[in-house]
Request: fold
Amino acid sequence: MLGEFELIQRYFMSPQEAHATAGIALENGDDAALLVPQAGQQLVVSVDTSVSNVHFPHDAPAHAIGHRALAVALSDLAAMGATSRWCLMALTLDKSAFVDRDAAEQWLAGYAKGFHALCQQHSTALVGGDVTSGALTIGVTVMGEVPIGDALTRSGASVGDVIAVTGALGGGAGGLALWRQGERDLSHPLLSRYLLPQPRLAAGVALRGLATAALDVSDGLLADLSHLRNASEVGCALALDALPLANGLHETLGHDGAIKAALTGGDDYELLVTLSPRNIAIAQQRLADLGLSLTVIGRCTETLGVTGVDASDYEGWQHFSGEAP
Amino acid sequence: MLGEFELIQRYFMSPQEAHATAGIALENGDDAALLVPQAGQQLVVSVDTSVSNVHFPHDAPAHAIGHRALAVALSDLAAMGATSRWCLMALTLDKSAFVDRDAAEQWLAGYAKGFHALCQQHSTALVGGDVTSGALTIGVTVMGEVPIGDALTRSGASVGDVIAVTGALGGGAGGLALWRQGERDLSHPLLSRYLLPQPRLAAGVALRGLATAALDVSDGLLADLSHLRNASEVGCALALDALPLANGLHETLGHDGAIKAALTGGDDYELLVTLSPRNIAIAQQRLADLGLSLTVIGRCTETLGVTGVDASDYEGWQHFSGEAP
Reply:
């Protein structure tokens, strides 16, 4: 097995794309990176940890693990309407999981490929990293920017605003169900939704000035909606029939399972937003230009809580865990 | 066991000291934090991971684990001459390690106390966090600032510069040896050096404009010196007799063991710097004002490599690991 320095050198200090290195005064490789924030912008920072057999199956393809660990972190920047600029990655590797040095290096090469490809897609430079030994765990810190005053938060929703969601829901849970059934083809749309989620950064930027509140659907629609309700002090009336379900979800989970996955499955990394009704058409047009749908699924109400769905019917969804079947 | 949100709420969102909240436009609690960098400053960022039984004993006191995880990360900012402003913490908890809920909460309360106390000491606000379940692992991202052009890097050393180190060396390794012998009293100076290291942030700031290169002693003096030699393209002549040894190190490890610990033990988190000989006196005065010594231990040479010590005598120091005795 290579040492830490050699590992970092070989897999995580590949030359970065020129467009991504703007704002880097000193690269990864000293004690810390030196970055140059842009004037007039606020810095947007978040950290997310992905633990093997808690957040993803340990035997998922290495490139998907690298992609996914970064994607779930970037999704938080998307939910703030920020563009992404830099990230730091703390990779804890379980060396005992590899039969030999070649297997370890093959895994790392795949992991780095998945991570770097998504970096490149979102003009994000990897500016810091740490490789340690232990149970496979990946911590990703992402740093982006948003013009002062333009950030989308959870607290701006008003009574009368409509509630809308980008793309489709339930794909994360549907993909996990397929994985447990033995499906391993990442080109299957549900499996791809689960293992290769796409952070909605462009959508977040497009919704600046339109969305009154935003967050990403990571814990499940009902749970994430409760964060929004609490922060904005509104209630929500949901229209179950309006939920945009991921392709193939009905076939995989049946009708009730599909609705449950959409409401509580999480791991979808779509944006959940509120908007004034008069702004829906323009918001939908902007997202259509990005190839993305925006579906109205409810409305903010004065009565606190959620109506339109009996939440007690939808408790106890199990996220991925090593103990599950 | 409390849920993630409750945990974060209770232990990691305690009101921050006013002086530490400057520059925070939106607190921890949304998808991401919004920060306001100061004009004329560069952002200095680094990430460090501390893994149980790799970087610290799993049964170390909880407050020391919280302190140490942050301290080793802050040490990288110190090595850049930066002041610290913000941090993010990703805590992966091994819930199975606790006999019951009370034990878990007691551990968390202690951990948070150690973490927050060091935050407060260095005016650092915790602006983001993630609590997950798995093998105990702590990732800390630190963010500081340094005026443009003032950062201390590894690459500025010149032939003729003297090499100096703050404080004393070998304490990390000496403390680990004591821990293995069963010592558990954190007031023992060596154990305190190992489990409660003090990041040298004030020293780094004081050495701005004086040090030509700097890094922190985390991997061991010889290893860290090799990073500096490679980055600056100089050699080093060391004076073994000049090494400042931690109090009690001779008694614990004997003469040869003490020298070996100072050269290769690591985990000391002192600053290793180079300076023009004419600046030594003023640098020593500035650090004396902080209650800290600065000891000249060698000189940068044209001949690459290290002289004054036979490096092959000092290979193979074992850092803490679960497999060790």
